[in-house]
Amino acid sequence: MSDSIFDSAKAQLDKALKYYSIDSESELRLQTPKAALSVSIPVRMDDGSLRVFQGYRVRYNDLLGPAKGGIRFHPGVNIDEVKSLAFWMTFKCAVVGIPYGGGKGGVTVNPKELSLLEIERLSRGYMSAVADFIGPNVDIPAPDVYTNSMIMGWMVDEYSKVSGEYTPSIITGKPIALGGSLGREDATGRGGYYALEAMRDGLGLPKGKLTVAVQGFGNVGYHFARLAAEAGHKVVAVSDSKGGIYTDDGLDPKSVHQVKEESRELKAAYCQGSVCEIRDFQSISNEDLLELDVDVLVPAALENVITEKNAPKIRAKVVVELANGPTAPIADEILFENKIHVIPDILANAGGVTVSYFEWVQNRMGLYWEEQEVHERLKKKMDAASFEVLELSKEHGCDLRTCAYIAALRRLNEAVKAKGTLRNFNSRR
Length: 429
Ligand code: NAD
Known about the structure:
Blueprint: H1 5-19, H2 24-29, E1 35-44, E2 50-61, E3 67-74, H3 79-95, E4 101-108, H4 116-130, E5 139-143, H5 149-163, H6 187-199, E6 211-215, H7 219-230, E7 234-240, E8 243-246, H8 253-263, H9 274-278, E9 282-284, H10 286-290, E10 296-299, E11 318-320, H11 329-337, E12 341-343, H12 345-348, H13 351-365, H14 371-396, H15 400-419, H16 422-428
Helix pairs in contact: 1-3, 1-15, 3-15, 4-5, 6-7, 6-13, 6-14, 13-14, 14-15
The site of nicotinamide-adenine-dinucleotide has 24 residues, from helix 7 and strand 7.
């Protein structure tokens, strides 16, 4: 089997096309990215030396509106990954019905090895390198793995310098002081939580308290865990790149997060901080966390963590994919056969891009909403998309991922047809 993430991503589309046929021209237009840019970014390091980093931006598709997608800083970033992430963004925006196409960017770097000032120079360097390729009506970046609102702040400042005008709508996920939206910080985790709550009855989850395990305790995983615990569910395990912690009693994500912030390592939460001292946490590896006997498993870190090898051992009733592409296509089949529902990434983690869209709208209006209004608008979007996907699963008998692709394909196909296809051409003759 191919190791290409893009091939795996395309396999998901091919599967949906077996259940739901679209105009052949729509199919053709979804096969390849519209544009891809590769840049080298020279950065002056703190010791005076020069390093050159590799960066990318891919605009996969803009049938429904300007391309939209985050910027990732990670040593594993490569063009195949960025292209796949841009592909998923195309379908994600279409599933939740926001007027965007799909894009993505990244820099091949381990930001943990850089000082804050070096990261600032790299962020500004990336933005000036891609400035001509993006734009508020063309392609709008946002945060992703190992990038955050501070980095978006540097980037919007750099773009405004390069373009010669204040342009907050060039990027989303900005600090509030620079035109960010209230409610953006926790939007992806919150959106995933809303999707789970909207679908739980339809997916046959037990009533009342659910047990939850979260792999990846960054922005997305933390906020999902926090909201789940606040709603009374039992978060029994969380992990980050260094390992995880587990307790039958359920942990308090807020305290764990606070300790992690202070210690920068989740394992320090064993014996530091008030909650940790009264809880009996066990150490758990990222691999074992995935195989826990819980109601809800949440991969919220990187792609391809549920594979052919470990899928048969997954015991959760529902997988909520907050990470992009955490389940390999073959693993998907195994989970489906084992009656484990997967709320797919393009739906489960669409809350971030939805509130990014709200941020862009507010920037263009120059009028800003209260946080509660943002939450309510997000819930409305996530509920509508979740119910649509559930309905499609009843209609077509397909797994939720395939149904989410069908929901997206319906909108993308309409846009292609509205722009004119061979059908229009033939009817005029
Ligand atoms: P983040 O950088 O805040 O957190 C990533 C977390 O994953 C960190 O805790 C890190 O330690 C952990 N991690 C890294 N490698 C790991 C490994 N091998 N095993 C377990 N944990 C590991 O990033 P984030 O913004 O929370 O993004 C997480 C995922 O969610 C990514 O797949 C991203 O593409 C996706 N996502 C993010 C957003 C968003 O708004 N931030 C939106 C949609 C999707």
